[in-house]
Amino acid sequence: MSAITKMNLSHLEPKMIRLTCKLIALACMSTPFFAQSYANAAVLTEENQQKIEWAVWRYAVDTPLLVQTIDWFRDLTQDTRESAAIAELSRLKFMRAQLELDKNHRVQLFERCITTADRALMINPNDVRGLFWKAAAMGKMAEDSGILNALRMLRPMEELLLKVVELDERYENAGAHRALGRMYHKLPGFPISFGSNQKALAHLKRAHELFPEDVITRAFYAELLYDIGKKVEARKHADFVLAAPIAEEDALEFSEYVDIALGVVKKTGGANIRLGNY
Question: CB–CB of 195/233 below 8 Å?
């Protein structure tokens, strides 16, 4: 399960686009970005959410902003009982962990992400953000921790993601559907594990129905469709990925999905390959 990650601005609702534009304006004001006092206000205000969204979107090209945002929001949430706010801190820590090149330190950072998500879930066991980012961090740790740890984490990850689907299947561009689809597709089936192309197809099809423009979903869907013999349909989704314009902020993360799409295109003839603008 890879890069269950951040929100692509091209997929934001019009309201969120307006909020992001407002944030840019705030950043240009003379008042220091993080110098305001929030002692008497709710932690996850609209303005604070805007700052988080901006740092998340820019995380791959502006690491200092991400670190600054984590430090600011960690202090802000130190004594809060707002589960959603703490879960957003977990989300920020997930982005920071993804940038770490040292494997051992990266695992430690994902562990901190999980600890923060657990703090949110202790307050509200049904906090969708906490559930999702805990599962995402576990998936990344599974990639780095070896086969035994990976197998140990898979069922708990599945349970977390299924709960997200039950509570809010649209969260993070249907990220739980997308992650479950990828997990079921890539895992071996019974008796070794619980992989299932049938389940994978159901989740990726639903993710595509909810967010048809999502590049990550289309890449995963294309590879699954190819593997189950639906090559023409697979090629359609792969071509979509390769033609999609990808912003500079997304280029690092999305390179993985472009590679998946390229693989499908090459296996289905390789003609008319066209990469979108970065």
Answer: no
The two three-digit tokens of residue 165, written as one number: 């689907």
User: CB under 8 Å to 253, separation ≥6 — which residues?
Assistant: 3, 5, 6, 60, 98
Give ∠ CA 118-169-200 in degrees, rounded to 5.
Answer: 100
Encode pLDDT of 190-233 as tens digits: 888 899 999 999 999 999 999 999 999 999 999 999 999 999 99
pLDDT digits (tens, 9 = 90+) for 102-158: 999 999 999 999 999 999 999 999 999 999 999 999 999 988 877 667 778 899 999
Where is 21: in which H helix or E strand? helix 14-27
Residue 200 neighbours by CB under 8 Å, 6+ apart: 180, 181, 182, 183, 184, 185, 224
Distance (Å, whole) CA 46 – CA 50: 6
Question: Quick check: bond before 64 cis, omega within 30?
Answer: no
- Please report, for residues 43, 64, 87, 117, 251, the alpha-carbon distance to residue 49 in angstroms, rounded to integers and kept in the order given: 9, 18, 12, 17, 23
Find all residues with CB under 8 Å of 182, minimum gap 6, and list them: 1, 2, 200, 204, 220
Phi, psi of 4 (to 5 degrees): -75, 75
Structure token pair of residue 25: 């304006």
Angle at CA of residue 219, ends 52 and 18, nearest 5°? 30
Cα–Cα distance, 120 to 266 (Å, whole number): 44
**34-48 core/surface letters (b: 16 or more CB in 10 A; e: else):** eeeeeeeeebbeeeb
